[in-house]
Design goal:
By secondary structure, this protein is mainly β. It is about 10% helix and about 30% strand. The strands form 4 sheets. Strands 6, 7, 8, 10 and 11 form a 5-stranded antiparallel beta sheet that branches. Strands 9-5-13-12 form a 4-stranded antiparallel beta sheet. Strand 12 and strand 13 form a beta hairpin. The longest helix has 15 residues. The termini are far apart. The relative contact order is 0.13.
């Protein structure tokens, strides 16, 4: 055997003695991330899984409806137009009815009847003060406070409830009376046109009458469904 043949045989033997191997494994020991265990799809907002409305931008459920996100269960949320609001029961935007309550609060009455400078009551006691209030298109049209014996009465009853649009278009009228057994003495009487500024302040205050030094009313505005 020549030298060249011996070299060839040794080379072939070394190849057969090497451990078996195959093509290179590009992803040894790990599954294909594309075909195995894919991430779950994003849940779609529907009436089946959302008690509120569905945000059109994110497709997320808006559980608590507001004027900026209002809609029937499982439907797309919408923003209510100016002057409207989201109805909590109807789950849709609506134009509310605005009403105002007018409640007499307190007054200061002069110590004597200015008509004749006499005591309000024959026994010299303070007047039994009552407020009669007349509001436009109210039901009932007139209200009457409870009777308070005092020169500085405070009332908790006798309000009228009226549409705010009527209140701003027609005046209210009130009488302050001293209730007596035979007839009632009129302490003061006035008529006044309520303004939007009055409603926003939530109070009416009057001063300057000879028999009635001052009187105030509370204005409470609310949305009627």
């Amino acid at each position: 055997m020549t030298l060249n043949n011996r070299t060839l045989l040794l080379g072939l033997a070394s190849i057969f003695l090497l451990p078996g191997c195959g093509p290179e494994d590009l992803n040894p020991g790990s599954p294909n991330p594309i075909t195995e265990n894919p991430p779950p799809l994003e849940e779609i907002c529907t009436a089946a899984n959302c008690a509120g409305c569905c945000d059109p931008a994110t497709n997320k459920c808006v559980q608590v409806r507001t004027d900026d996100a209002c809609g029937v269960t499982g439907t797309t949320c919408v923003k209510c137009a100016p002057g409207t609001m989201c109805h909590p029961a109807q789950q849709q935007c609506y134009t509310p009815t605005i009403r105002t309550k007018i409640q007499p609060l307190r007054a200061t009455i002069a110590p004597h009847d200015p008509a004749d400078d006499s005591d309000w009551d024959v026994d010299g006691s303070p007047p039994d003060a009552v407020v009669e209030l007349f509001c436009p298109n109210a039901q009932p049209a007139a209200s009457r406070s409870e009777e308070i014996e005092s020169f500085t009465p405070n009332w908790t009853q006798g309000f009228c409830d009226v549409l705010s649009t009527d209140l701003l278009s027609m005046p209210i009228q009130f009488n302050v009376l001293d209730v007596d057994a035979i007839f009632d003495d009129k302490v003061a009487s006035a008529q006044y046109q309520v303004t939007q500024g009055d409603i926003e302040r939530g109070v009416l205050q009057f001063t300057g009458s000879s028999g009635l030094t001052s009187i105030s009313f509370q204005l409470t505005t609310y949305y009627a469904q």
